[in-house]
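ingest -> validate -> predict -> emit
validate: passed (alphabet ok, no gaps, 171 aa)
predict: started
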Amino acid sequence: GGTGDDTLTLSGQSEIWRTPMDMSSTVTAKSDQLNSDDLLGGPITITITAVKATTSNPDQPVAIHYAGDNGKPFLPCKTVRRAIISCWGPDAATYTGRRMTLYRDPEVAFGGMKVGGIRISHISDIEREAVLMLTTTRAKKAPVRIKPLAAATITEPKPTAPTAPDNALAL
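emit:
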């Protein structure tokens, strides 16, 4: 019989069931926004559904809502906002439907300590890699590379030949 902990006991032997489990969902930060710890499991590609101004934090005045954000929008820092503007222009109304891949950069510092932060690796709607000189600390700039993100592939169902309904009269 089972013991409730994915262990099956047979004739005194214990065998652990080998069920795959993605551990990244167990370390999601409890927050009202996407943060770098949410990306410990790896990068994510988001599709923007809305961009709104926020008033709660003057350092993060923009909320980027995306498909599947579960009420936790991406609040980009100034460096990331500069990168987005450099790639897409300043009109946030044009961002809806565009996509970007976000990753956790462990080198991002805050208050002199490396705490990790969210950066963009790929972005849609650009023709070639963008190399931007962006501020990394108050006195230092460094190149930031953002690669083009391939268009999303939408698999359309293949049309099938029409078939007669089950209740059709046989001729």
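The first strand starts at residue 7 and ends at 10.
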